[in-house]
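Example A, followed by Example B.
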Amino acid sequence: GGMSDWQAASLPVIKGSIAALITGVQHLVGHNGKIYVVADVCSPDLVEAHAALTRAGAVHSFARYSPHVTLGKMKETPNEDFDDRVEKLNVKLKGRPIHMMFVGVTASDINSD
């Protein structure tokens, strides 16, 4: 079950924007068995926002918190060419991460998704 309206209403509001760095790209298998390409995100402010939401009673379906942005869903299992391109991109990102901002951050129940 998801959060009740009361629980959702009691979550802290995150004001302003949250700065972050995209530090790498990888593919993950979601809990639906589909393969997603994600950008790994590094942000102390995002980690703190997650901690504040957790302290307020929010829960998520993954065992550990791993900040990321989903870039897309793959139609087939990644091949060697894909892995090579991702590896080259990750070398670039390691030396020069991409700056990004999360703007208008809100928390909501996505269990129905």
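Example B, a separate protein, is given below in the same form.
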Amino acid sequence: MSLGTFCLVKNEKLWITPHIIRILPYVDQCVFYDGNSTDGTLEAIEQIKNTDPNGHKIKLFKDKDPKNLRDDYVFLFNECMRQLDTD
């Protein structure tokens, strides 16, 4: 059995690095949809992806900002979850 996580993020720089570093050794894959962050969130994820020994477990998708929080958010949430290659 393989374990994966997925998350929609936007401007989460304060918590994203500790979050990823803490869970990455224990999961088989992490999928992130970034909603056009402007605070360095995207760069933080990319840095971990490119430098951490477990960085290959990260799938990052850019420009995934919901236009309508009621309808688009649910669509993006489900789309992000479908990107997982884990059980």
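On Example B: The two ends are 6 Å apart (CA to CA).
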